[in-house]
Design goal:
This protein has one domain: Glycosidases (TIM Barrel). It is 32% helix and 18% strand. The strands form three sheets. The chain has a three-stranded parallel beta sheet. Strands 4-5-6 form a three-stranded antiparallel beta sheet. Strands 7-8 form a two-stranded antiparallel sheet. α3 runs parallel beside α4. The radius of gyration is 19 Å and the shape is globular.
C-alpha cells in the first residue's frame, strides 16, 4: 500500500513461514524502515513501524551517556504507540570495548526491558571480558533469566490485551504530576519499578519517585512508603 513501509509485508512473510512450521511467528526488523533508506536511497523512513509480529531494533547505536538516556526514554515512548518489543544494541554497536561503568549501566538497563540483546560489530561484550565487574554483570544476567516466568506472563498480556512490558509511570498513576516529570523512570510490568543510572562513575546516584504504597528495594530489602522521592547511590 502506498505510504506504508515494505517491511510490514516482508515481516509478515517471515512470521508466516514460522507458523507454517508449527512455531510462533516472530520477525526481527529495524524500526520504521529497513536498509533501503540508508544514504538517502529508496523509500524515505516512515513514522510507523510494523507492530503485529516483529521485534523492532533501533539501529546501530553509538556509545555515550546521552544515547543511553535516549534509549531509556525511547523504550517508554514507543510502548505508547503499540510497539512493546523494542530493543537496542546494548553497550553500543561501534565501540570495541567499554569502560567498566559503561558496561555495567547498559547491562543493568537491559535486564529490565522487553528484549535483552548484546550486539555489536565484533565488540567485546561478555562478562569475563570485564574482570573488575564480571561478578556484578553475571548477577544481573542471572537475574534476567530468573525473571523469565514474569516476562513470559507480561508477554501474554501484550498478545491478549496490548499492555506493554515497559510502562511510563503515567500508565498506572495518570493523576500524579511526578509520573510525567520522571521520564526515565518506568514500571516493568505492574510489580517492578525501574530507575536506571545514566551518569558515569562506579558510584552514581539517581532520584527515584515512589508512588503511593509500600515498595521493597530488591537489592537491600529496604521498605519505602510512598508517595516520596529518594536519592539512591548505586
Amino acid at each position: 500500500m502506498k505510504g506504508l513501509p515494505k517491511d510490514g509485508w516482508i515481516n509478515s512473510l517471515y512470521a508466516k513461514d514460522a507458523k507454517d512450521q508449527g512455531l510462533r511467528g516472530f520477525a526481527f526488523s529495524r524500526i520504521g524502515e529497513g536498509y533501503q533508506s540508508y544514504g538517502g536511497k529508496g523509500q524515505p523512513n516512515t513514522a510507523w513501524a510494523e507492530h503485529r509480529s516483529t521485534v523492532q531494533f533501533t539501529g546501530d547505536a553509538n556509545l555515550s551517556w546521552e544515547m543511553l538516556a535516549f534509549e531509556i526514554k525511547y523504550t517508554i515512548l514507543v510502548a505508547n504507540i503499540g510497539m512493546p518489543y523494542i530493543t537496542h544494541d546494548l553497550c553500543s554497536f561501534n565501540k570495541d570495548s567499554l569502560k567498566d561503568d559503561e558496561y555495567m549501566r547498559h547491562i543493568q538497563f537491559g535486564t529490565f526491558q522487553s528484549i535483552f540483546r548484546l550486539h555489536s560489530d565484533h565488540g567485546i561484550r561478555l562478562p569475563w571480558n570485564y574482570p573488575n565487574v564480571k561478578n556484578h554483570a553475571q548477577d544481573f544476567m542471572r537475574l534476567r533469566h530468573s525473571l523469565a516466568p514474569y516476562i513470559y506472563s507480561l508477554s501474554y498480556e501484550v498478545s491478549t490485551g496490548g499492555m506493554p512490558l515497559v510502562r511510563g509511570m503515567y500508565f498506572d498513576y495518570p493523576d500524579s504530576p511526578e509520573a510525567y516529570l520522571f521520564e526515565k523512570q518506568y514500571m516493568f510490568g505492574e510489580k517492578i519499578l525501574i530507575s536506571p543510572v545514566i551518569t558515569p562513575g562506579a558510584n552514581a546516584n539517581t532520584i527515584v519517585w515512589f508512588p503511593e504504597g509500600t515498595w521493597t528495594n530488591f537489592f537491600t530489602k529496604e521498605k519505602v512508603i510512598g508517595p516520596i522521592k529518594k536519592i539512591y547511590f548505586k
